[in-house]
Amino acid sequence: MGGVSERADPHTPIRAGIPEHGRVPKYYAVKARVEVLIADLGEGGLLPTERELAADFGVARETVRQALRELLIQGRVRRKGRGTVVAEPKLVQPLSTASYTEGVRQQGRVPGRHLVGLERLHADVALAAELRLEAGAPVWHMERVLLADDERVGLESTYLAVARVPHLERDFAPDASFYAFLRERLGVEPTVVDERIETVLATPREALLIGTPPALPMLLLHRSSSDAEGRPLERVRSLYRGDRFSFTVRLSRP
User: Which PROSITE patterns does the entry link to (predicted)?
Assistant: First the structure.
């Protein structure tokens, strides 16, 4: 293959996102060429090495490395051993009152969770206000790694009043669906849910638990839910891998 042109060809995908008067960075042109290769290889296909791609495209290995880094962040490729393969499609999680378990199962994947810790804390002023408790009231904090087909894809922290579930440590299997437990054992489930989404970088501890580089962008969801009687049920902080998740919501005009 020849060297990579620095100017956008209007008939190639390289032009997408480039200003009319702009010059295409070499890494971006390489990225577009690799995206064509990804489409040809299909899911699980092994990409050539950085050295081979650099030779084929006539660019430096650092240019190839930068292109692959962006594709890795976008979830188009993933590392496998010492190589790089075409990644499977992202998990598409609906924003709804449904649980993580239900969303993953709908996509034909096997959900799972690994307990990091379950502890009793005293609610600070902000948490107490959200759960309508007195400051200092006992609350559960449950932290779990989220799995999909045994792949670590997120980290979830759940807070709820001890008064609502006094024996959570005894009655709940931490690898199971918490919403199913609330519904089947206590007869309650979230009816009204407020969620806020933002992009963040994981802390070193979070990155270690999820098994990702600290520089990988994450999707952070803040969820507060109430039961059918309007009583606060939980506050949840969920961190999802940006390269493995996207979210959807269906809106309709009343």
Answer: HTH_GNTR
